[in-house]
Amino acid sequence: MYLDxxxxxxxxxxxGTILSGQAGGWFEPFSGLIAxxxxxxxxxxxxxxxxxxHRITVPGLLEAGTERIPNPIPGLPPLDTTVNDMVVPFFTxxxxxxxxxxxKLTDPNMSxxxxxxxxxxxxxxxxxx
Length: 129
Description:
This protein is mainly beta. The chain folds into two domains: about 1-45, no CATH class; about 45-129, no CATH class. Helix content is about 10%, strand content about 35%. It has helices at about 10-20, 25-30, and strands at about 1-5, 40-45, 45-50, 55-60, 60-65, 80-85, 95-105, 110-115, 120. The strands form two sheets. Strands 3, 4, 5, 6, 7, 8 and 9 form a seven-stranded antiparallel beta sheet that branches. The longest helix has 11 residues, at about 10-20. It starts with a strand and ends in an 8-residue tail after the last strand.
């Protein structure tokens, strides 16, 4: 888990409790799927939208970018892949299904690189007990 460096210690601890499943809610059943939980890291997180592409960067650790899904018919605009009422418990707004242009993690504890996969962009809210 990467937390923005501007998060207070109380915020970091609260998010750690929630995301580890210790606060209950829908994170709790998923916590059993993580064999080796890693400690949260406070990092610089940059989010930007450039020419319709969403990008998230954590310098030296993470690069992620998405784009709208191109239309398979030449000359037509990208597909509108907005989904309302997605059956995922934390999405509270419509979800924009997109295509990843890059997803690269170079953390010393875990690394991978993918592109061209599915990506979801949305806002969500969560409140615990």
